[in-house]
Amino acid sequence: MATSIQKLEESIADKIKNYQKHLDLWEFDDKHVDIWIKQFPEEEREIVLTETDNLLSHNYFKKSKIKEFFEEIWDTKEIMGINPMMFINQVQFLDIQTKGHSQKRLVKLLEDYYLKSKGVVINKCNHANVKKYIYLDDCMYTGFTLIKDISNWIESMSPNFDTQLDIILLGEYNGNYNYVMEQLEKKCAGRRIGVTLYRMYEYNNDFKHLMPPYDVLWPQYIDDDEYVNAYVKGMEEQKASTGKGGIGFRNVYMGEKESELFTSTQNRIIFEKALLKKGAYICSLPQKANERMKPMGYSHGISLGFGAFFATCYNISNNCPLAFWWGDVWSASSETLGKWYPLLPREVNQ
User: Fold this and answer.
1) How does pLDDT run across 222-237, given as a tens digit for each residue?
2) How many Å apart are CA 311 and CA 337, to the nearest integer?
3) Which of 143, 177, 203 is the last residue before a domain boundary?
4) Global pTM?
5) Cα separation, 276 vs 4, whole angstroms
6) How far is CA 239 from CA 103, 219, 222, 302, 346, in A?
7) Of 203, 225, 256, which marks where a domain is finished?
8) What percent of the chain has pLDDT over 90?
9) Are residues 169 and 232 in the same domain?
C-alpha cells in the first residue's frame, strides 16, 4: 500500500510529467520528485510535498490552461471587440521581448491555435491599419522587463498614433502595478496610445497598499539555522553599508484569512521556513553569486527574495524560491550546481 509521501510524489509527478517536453531532456516522474524531497529533513517532507502539490494545482499552467487563456482573450469584447473575426485584422501581436523566450513562445502558440481553431492568421509585424497592439506574456513580477520592452518599442518601431496597447498576462503580481502603469502611460503618451492591462490571475504582493493575505512565499522569523542566520547577517551588513532599508520576515497577523495558495496557515509557516533554509544554503554555494540571487527567489533590493510561484509547462521563473529550480540534474554532487537537485530546472533566459 502506498504511503502518504508516495501518493503526494505521484500526484506532483502527474502534474509536471510534461514539463519541458519540448526539450525532452529529463523524466519528471515520481522518482525525480523523491530525489528532490529527500534533500529536506524527514519531518518536513510531507508538508513540503502537500504545499507544493497545492501550489502546482493553482499556479502551474499546462498547455490546456494556456489554450483557455487564448479563448478568454478571443471572447473578451474589451480586447477583441464584438466581432473578433473582423477586428483581428486591426490587431498586431507584438514580439518584442529582448530577453527570454516566454513572449515568443506564447505568440507562436496563439498563432497556431487561432489558425487551427478560428481559421485566422494573426498579424505580428505589419503596422498598416493597426488600431490595437497586444503585448502577450506569461507573468508580471516587478514589471521592469515590460517597461523596458515598451520603451524600446516606442523608440525604435514608431507604432501608430491614436491607438491602443493591451498588456495581456496569464498572471500578475500586483505590488508594482501602479508604478508600471504610470511608466507605460508616460512612454505611450507621445503617440497618444492608450494602455490597459488584463490578467487571468492576480496575486497580491502589494504590501504598501493592500492588506493580507499575500500570495507570495514570505517566511516568518527563524533564528535556528546557520545558513539563514548568515544570510540575514549579510542583509543587515548591506543595509548598514548602503543606508538602504529592506524587507525582512513576514509579520504575524492575528485572524488573517489565508491565501488559497496554501492548505492551512500552519502548513504555510512550516513550508516557507523549509524553503528559506534550503534557499539560504543554496545562496552560500556560489563563490560569486548574482546580487539578485536570494533564498526565496531573484529580486532587486535587500530582502529574503521575491517569493513567487508561477510556472508553465515550459519554464519556471527565477523569482520563485531557489529550492524549486536552482541546480542541475546532470551535475555531479562535487560540482557547485550539483549540490542541489531541482524539482523544476530552469531554462535560462538568453
Assistant:
1) 989 999 999 999 999 9
2) 21
3) 203
4) 0.94
5) 24
6) 36, 20, 19, 7, 30
7) 203
8) 86
9) no
